[in-house]
Amino acid sequence: MSIETIASRATRATGSNGAILLALGLILLWVASGPFFHFSAVWQMTINTGTSVVTFLMVFLIQKAQNKDSLAIQLKLNELVAANELASNRLVNVEDMTEEDLKVIRKYYHKLSDFAKSEESLIQSHSIDEAHEMHEIKKEMEEELSKKLDK
Question: In whole angstroms, what is the distance from residue 47 CA to residue 27 CA?
Fold first, then answer.
């Protein structure tokens, strides 16, 4: 059995209602045993050690599950971007870019948002490149028009 299989099974098991009830039962059993052990230091250390070990293992298990889910989501998004002819393929594998690269792309989307606000139709969609090109065309037309009006 691979580590992947073990991690998947453990993730499903620890996220189940049964696991919650088992944990609650163990805590109640520990509390109920307090008077029997006279609430000793050993009694307290038992729960402290047990919860520390479980917490330590769960951190890694949760991170493994989160990494797998994140990768699956990124692959699905990459497929959607690649399949859509109007989408910018620059966004495929965007998660592998540096933070600085992401900030540059964010600036482009802010510009795209500004272009969209100036559009007459609310349902019109543009890529970053198309919006920039249209903006340049509009700018040239405005300059040409102002030259003609100045004459």
Answer: 8
Angle at 47 between CA 42 and CA 49, to 5 degrees: 85
Residue 95 or residue 123, greater confidence: 95
CB-based contacts of 106, cutoff 8 Å, min separation 6 = none
Q: Cα dist. 29→39, 43, 52, 70 in Å?
A: 13, 12, 18, 38
Question: Amino acid letter at 105?
Answer: I
Assess whether 119 and 50 both reside in one domain.
no
Q: Taking 60 as the threshold, does the pLDDT of residue 122 lie above it?
A: no
10 Å Cβ neighbour count for 126?
Answer: 16
- Rounded-to-integer distance, Cα 135 and Cα 119, Å: 11
DSSP label at residue 94: G
Task: Write the pLDDT tens digit of every residue in 49-93.
Answer: 999 999 999 999 999 999 999 999 999 988 888 888 777 777 788
The last residue of a domain, from among 88, 107, 130: 88
